[in-house]
Amino acid sequence: MDINSTVVFNDIMSGKEATPVLLSALYECTAISKIWPTKEGGQFQWDADHGVKIKQGMTFKKLAKSLFPQKKQYNEFWTLDNCAMLIQRMQEDFGARLVWGDNVEMPGAEDFRRLFCTFESKLVRTVRKGIVRSWFELYRKYRKEHLIMLNTFGVECRRLILETVKREDKVTLWTVNYQQWEPFDQERFKEQYDISNTADADDEDMPQYQDPADAPSQPQPVVIDEIPADIATAVP
Question: To 10 degrees, what angle do helices 80-94 and 109-126 make?
Answer without folding.
Answer: 150
